Amino acid sequence: MVSTAVPRVAAHRRVARRISWEFWLLLPATVYIFLLIGFPLLLSIYYSLSHISVGRRDYSFAGLSNFRAILSDQVFQHALRNTVLITVVVLVAVLVLSTILATALAERFPGKPAVRYLLLLPWASPVVMSTIAWKWIFDSQYSVINWVARRLHIIGPYEFPQWLGVPHLALISIIIVQVWRILPFATVITLAGMSAVPRELIEAALVDGAGFFTRLFRITLPLVRPILGVAILFTALFTFTDMAVVWILTRGGPYNTSHVLSSWAFQVGIVAGDLAQGAAIALFMLPVLALVAIWVLRLSHREVTE
Amino acid sequence: MTAMPDTRRLLLRALLVAVLAIFLAQALFPFAWMAITAFKRDSDLYNPTNNPFLFNEPPTLAHFRLLFTETKFPRWVVNTAWVGLATVLITLVLSLPAGYALARLRGRLGQNLGIAVFLTYLIPPTLLFLPLSQIVSGVGLQDNTWSLVLTYPSLAVPFVSWLLMGFFRSLPQELEEAALVDGATRFTAFWRVLLPLAVPGILTAVIFTFTLAVNEFIYALTFVSISDLKTVSVGVPTDLIRGDVFFWGAIMASALVVSLPVTLLYNAFLDRFVEGLTAGALR
Fold it and tell me: Of A162, A282, B15, B190, which is the most buried if we count CB atoms within 10 A?
């Protein structure tokens, strides 16, 4: 008894001493993160339940009236629908395209590092700068897409499709830019997963006479699934919470039809100054973020147990 | 092993080339378009009968000249550099100790704290900018680049701490313990022994943080509305416009000037960034 108790006490003491210096090192970052992430998060929940606006610091309790007001607003309904729609479409497109691209990049061919480097540029480029290039590509009069389409007689010689001026085209434009931007990121993740598939498995399948697509769908993709989860997670997160692309391309136009939650929260909270309703709008992102967080926890839990 | 018939092999090869060509074209097109537009004369650019892919008139540097001499672009570049460097410094001061501590906290507690730090990375600025705008004006930092310097690290600290944690974990604990046995303090052991070994990880953190500061849009748009104090990310899309006329030549020139260095820098480190995100899922 004594012989086991003593080391245990010593071990406890060692742990206590060890925790202390690590605790002090963690403290500044923790306090800072709380002040700039935790506290504002709580504050935005509080705002959404109050009457606060930019001109009027009225912190009185408003109950759920802000939520009732925004839910009955058509622009908000559009913004919510757009956010979900854009995220889902981008997610599906990115998953399919990144699987194709990663499969191609997993092959051996000359000049591969250069090709890979170039393919990754859209993700590395500052989002505002590349989005504004897209805004010019979608220009109302000088769109190069329209010029090519006219030349190929897809559209008539005097047709000028307004990419950013017609509701459904504006949404398509936003989706195109998001897919273009996030595809390289998802591809790198998928590729990392693919290169982790044991070579022997592929060779064994080759010996058994499995064709290219059998190998892809029966061996590679099932083995890559956990890491595809990471690609899905961050693609969804980056698309769902982004404001820069929408704000620069359309500013929510035409007629507030292409808003997403973040841009509409900005419009209501900052431009119109209704902080309470703006906060309520932004908080509609929270359920999805909670799902993402749970997913991360499950992924990391599996890592611990396996 | 090579049971595949030659024609099928060739077909697959052709498919590979076609797929790569299509993907390359879509990935690079916007950059090519920036470059073509930036060097074109306005009279060439705004003539709908011209082939937009060609230089129908000789190229010009007029847009770059306009950008650097008649707009506030140089000012925005200076602001961005200052905000970026200060953000990097604050982020390192907070994240280096945190990452080191997380790496050395073994067992459940360390694991859970690490995950908790990573989870805060998932909370997006689009959820926080409204209350932060009130805090910023409450402490009198509205229209001041300090508002960005003090808030940007919050976007970087969680991920950078996580990244550095992984890096310090890969360094053997015996190294610093040997130094401690030799009578060094915890700080000297960290500073003299571990830090020099962690330089690649720190470099990754620096590039991540700096590009994040250049990229950031929503805080900069919300907190700073004076043109002289803007960063490039907000100045270019909001101030290179007169009325509703966009100076496309100058805008594309600025996009090119900003994108090129940032993109090349960030791309070199993209793999490390992804490693940070996928840590765990691979094992």
Answer: A282
Q: Which residue among B12, B101, B237 sits closest to A248, beta carbon to beta carbon?
A: B237
Across all residues in chain A, what is the average pLDDT? 87
> What's the whole-model pTM score?
0.90
Is A121's CB within 8 Å of B37's CB?
no
Domain count, chain B: 1
Q: CA–CA separation, B146 vs B76, rounded Å?
A: 14
Shortest distance between the Cα of B13 and any Cα of chain A, in A, equals: 9
Q: Which sign, positive or negative, has the C-alpha torsion B144, B146, B151, B156?
A: positive
Query: Is B12 among the domain residues?
Result: no
ipTM: 0.90
- The matching CATH number, chosen from 1.10.3720.10, 2.40.50.100, 3.40.50.720, 3.90.650.10, for A68-305 is 1.10.3720.10
The pLDDT > 70 percentage for chain B reads 97
Nearest chain B Cα distance for residue A2, angstroms: 26
End-to-end CA distance of chain B: 30
The answer to whether the beta carbons of residues A159 and A150 sit under 8 Å apart is yes
Nearest to B3 among A97, A123, A209 (CB): A209
Q: How far apart are CA A101 and CA A16, in angstroms?
A: 51
pLDDT band at A7 (very low <50, low <70, confident <90, very high): low
State the best of A17, A33, A241 to mutate against chain B, taking most chain B CBs within 10 Å: A33
pLDDT at residue A12, as a whole number: 61
Tally of residues, chain B: 283
Q: d(Cα B220, Cα B241) in Å, to the nearest integer? A: 18
Handedness of CA A47, A49, A55, A56 (dihedral sign): negative
Contacts with B52 from chain A: Cβ below 8 Å: 142, 144, 147
Which of A101, A212, A286 is the closest to B23 by Cβ?
A: A101
User: Mean pLDDT over residues A87-101, rounded?
Assistant: 95
Among the partner-chain residues B3, B118, B126, the one whose CB lies closest to the CB of A282 is: B126
Q: Is residue B29 part of a domain?
A: no
Closest Cα of chain A to B25: distance in Å?
9
- Considering chain A, what percentage of its residues have pLDDT values greater than 70? 92
Domain that holds residue B217: 64-278
For the record, the structure tokens of A142 come out as 């000088």
Q: With an 8 Å Cβ cutoff, are B123 and A41 in contact? A: yes
Structure tokens belonging to residue A30? 């923790």
Residue B39 counted as domain residue: no
| Cβ-defined contact of B248 to A36 (cutoff 8 Å) | no
B119: which chain A residues are within 8 Å (Cβ-Cβ)? 293, 296-297
With residues binned 3-state (H G I as helix, E B as strand, rest as coil), the percentages for chain B, rounded to 5, are 75, 0, 25
Q: Please state, in angstroms and as integers, the Cα–Cα distance from residue B224 to each residue in A36, A141, B219, following that order.
A: 18, 32, 8
- Looking at residue A2, its pLDDT comes to 44
Cβ contact B278–A189 (<8 Å): yes
